TrEMBL record:
Pfam families registered for this protein in UniProt: DnaT_2
Superkingdom in the source lineage: Bacteria
Positions of the Putative DnaT-like domain: 2-164
Entry protein name: Putative DnaT-like domain-containing protein
UniProt-listed InterPro entries: DnaT_2
Length: 164
């Protein structure tokens, strides 16, 4: 398997190459990544890229109608500065690296099952409770969310202010 990381390509399937992911995880001492076979790393990076594109609503618009992935994008600003519309932001690449490692221990977005109510009776006391899961049982990745916070649209009750 060979992944395509060409920015803006109609055949791109990952924001990050295996070499980039190796360097990222090596800097952070993530030894679990080092022992993964190259083909498995590629699959993990493709799944992680698919996850961020499916899970997050990005600011701006795609740079080209023909590109396969959501990045690069026009009309995106972070900290008041425009994001270069010819590149994938490093924060997106870092998020993909983090999520690729997480694919090694399970699905990023498992199917949602109905919450079960559990009942326990001890003597005259009965307790009922459901698992304390948010988002209907979907996993959330706090570090990834914080990496991408400035790049996603909406949230926090914010509105876009345009001066005329």
């Amino acid at each position: 398997m060979a992944i395509d990381t060409t920015t803006g390509s109609p055949t791109a399937d990952s924001y990050v190459s295996v070499a980039e992911a190796d360097a990222y995880h090596s800097k952070r001492g993530n030894t679990a990544w080092a022992g993964v076979a190259a083909d498995d790393k590629e699959s993990a990076l493709v799944r992680a890229t698919g996850y961020v594109d499916a899970e997050y609503s990005w600011k701006g618009v795609r740079a080209s109608a023909g590109q396969a992935l959501a990045w690069p994008r026009y009309d995106v600003r972070t900290d008041g500065y425009p994001v270069d519309p010819d590149v994938v932001p490093q924060r997106v690449k870092d998020a993909v690296c983090e999520l690729a490692l997480k694919t090694r221990t399970g699905e990023l977005s498992p199917d949602i099952s109905p919450q079960q109510v559990v009942e326990q009776t001890v003597g005259p006391i009965t307790r009922k409770f459901a698992p304390a899961e948010r988002n209907g049982g979907q996993k959330r990745y706090a570090y990834v969310d914080s990496l991408l916070r400035q790049l996603v649209a909406g949230g926090g009750g914010q509105i876009r202010l345009v001066r005329a």
